[in-house]
Design a protein that fits this description.
Rossmann fold; alpha/beta; binds S-adenosylmethionine; eight-stranded mixed sheet
Length: about 280
């Protein structure tokens, strides 16, 4: 396991994933009922963009969250995400960046629950420290692929699962499809948020087709944020597939995506959003 999220924290892919995650939670909270959030690939929870060697070495966040932080007129729907960034930082300096479990912890209500899974022992220990003593939260240092089987369906039955594996080993698309298929069999109304990098366009297209059939007629929304031309090579963007998106999320995401594509553009910025299975 070589992957450490500190190299990539706050990059364009994190901005996409985290801003949509925040919107998704806020959309679900329109109904005042408890919910559970499962963060299957938690990471360390908090990243120091200015002092951590990893972030300094890659500087990926400078073309990601930094551009959102510096934006003269941020979009209103970025509110929940930006509020978190402001709460973690002082003044105008952007130094700390929250990982997905911290974002979820801060957005959840007193009756909600967070289950965070992280396989890397050091990252899991950091995450545990970061989330602190919170009766609503539990960290599991184990593999998400098996943990999901034991967690689903959760109690309460309302909630979401975030699945964003590191994509450092072959077969990650296959594992995501299998996890979504198995997850939906166990929990048909769960909201599944699946993230993927866009590098190999043909592999992404195959994944779209296969996930569409795995969704088994449950609503499936697809959104891709390209920051470079599709044929530029390397990581040209990233995408989200959302099974059972909450009401109103698709509309909010369309505005957000167009704004992000312009803001994070590195030559070919583009947003593509479509229903692969429309709501019935
Ligand atoms: C892309 S990062 C997660 C980032 C985090 N979700 C966020 O948005 O802030 C993927 C994480 O998954 C962890 N990981 C790798 N394989 C895993 C597995 N089988 N089960 C759980 N975690 C795993 C890695 O150590 C890494 O911290």
């Amino acid at each position: 396991m070589n992957y450490r999220h500190g190299f990539h924290a706050g990059n364009h892919a994190d901005v996409l994933k985290h801003s949509v995650l925040a919107l998704c939670v806020r959309s679900m909270q329109r109904k005042p009922k408890p919910l559970v959030a499962i963060d299957a690939f938690g990471g360390a929870g908090r990243y120091d963009l200015l002092m951590d060697d990893r972030a300094i070495r890659t500087g990926e966040w400078r073309n990601g969250v930094s551009r959102v932080w510096e934006a003269a007129k941020p979009l209103e729907s970025l509110g929940p995400y930006l509020d978190l960034l402001r709460a973690m930082n002082t003044g105008d300096e952007l130094r700390f960046y929250p990982g997905s479990p911290l974002i979820l912890q801060r957005l959840l209500g007193p009756e909600d629950k967070l289950l965070a899974v992280e396989l890397h022992p050091e990252e899991a220990a950091e995450l545990e420290r970061e989330l602190g003593r919170d009766k609503r939260v539990r960290v599991y240092a184990e593999s998400a692929w098996t943990a999901l089987k034991s967690f689903l369906p959760p109690t309460p039955r309302r909630g979401l699962v975030l699945i964003d594996p590191p994509f450092e080993q072959p077969g990650e698309f296959d594992r995501m499809i299998a996890a979504a298929q198995d997850g939906l069999r166990r929990w048909r109304n769960g909201v599944f948020v699946l993230w993927h990098p866009i590098k190999d366009l043909a592999a992404c297209e195959r994944y779209r087709r296969r996930l569409t059939s795995a969704a088994d007629d449950q609503p499936l929304l697809s959104a891709d944020l390209f920051i470079k031309d599709a044929d530029a090579g390397g990581l040209v963007g990233s995408g989200l597939m959302i099974v059972n998106p909450p009401y109103g999320l698709a509309e909010a995401m369309a505005d957000l995506g167009a704004w992000l594509a312009a803001q994070l553009d590195q030559g070919g910025g583009r947003w593509r959003q479509e229903w692969l299975v429309p709501p019935g």
